[in-house]
Amino acid sequence: MENSVPNHVGIIMDGNGRWAVKHGMIRSLGHKKGADNLKSLVQYVFTKGVKCLSVYAFSTENFKRDKEEVDYLMNLIIKFFNKEKSTFVKNKIKVLVSGSKDNLRSDVIAAIEGIEEATKDFTDKVFNVCFNYGGRLEIVDTLKKIIDKVQNNELDISSIDENLVSSYMYKDLPDLDFVIRTSGELRTSNFMLWQSSYAEYYFPETLFPDFDEKEFDIALEEYSKRKRRFGGV
Ligand code: FPP
Fold first, then answer.
1. Cβ distance 146 to 202 under 8 Å?
2. Has residue 47 been placed in a domain?
3. Which tens digit of pLDDT belongs to each residue from 75-85?
4. Catalytic option among 3, 62, 75, 91
């Protein structure tokens, strides 16, 4: 039997830098083009019946990049959230940001809190932006929260199971069904390690700024052909 539409899709938006170089531009303009692409792609993904979309916008390791590029990405997320807020509200999309607040500028934190607050009452469609995010760090931060509860006698060790751990992650999200990494790189790079344990992966060669609605349809077609067994036969 064919798979239906995935409930939770993840996109590792790779290849912005190479897109810029290919078009004779500085790397940051590749991120701008990526953000422009993301604006329309998010809206499209939900029209296909996907309920939750997670994207990898900035990893904790991305702080190692030149200050100019890091600053550009910080300013880009502020602009992205401020400009798109009304569209997310209009389309009833809940926006969440997963990641550490450590090392983030106060104006970036304000933009994150602003969009989360404006969309907090929506439930049907969830857009989760991983920003200053690392999959291992998320697991470590979750362990700390759980241990703290146990030490304060608010949680019994015997009640710790997989569902409980999921509920203590940065955001309580369903498991990923399908993860797309653009640009032909065959790595997962610390993206949502806990949530992707049984995800199907897809690695198109297309660079993220060119990964448009047509490419997403091709990805869904590919997903529909996968046989998911979750460890069974
Ligand atoms: C990886 O490409 C991409 C990033 C590190 C940033 C992704 C960000 C966007 C798509 C912009 C939209 C995001 C928001 C909401 C701010 P790369 O730079 O590693 O590309 P390369 O591998 O070709 O060098």
1. no
2. yes
3. 999 999 999 99
4. 62
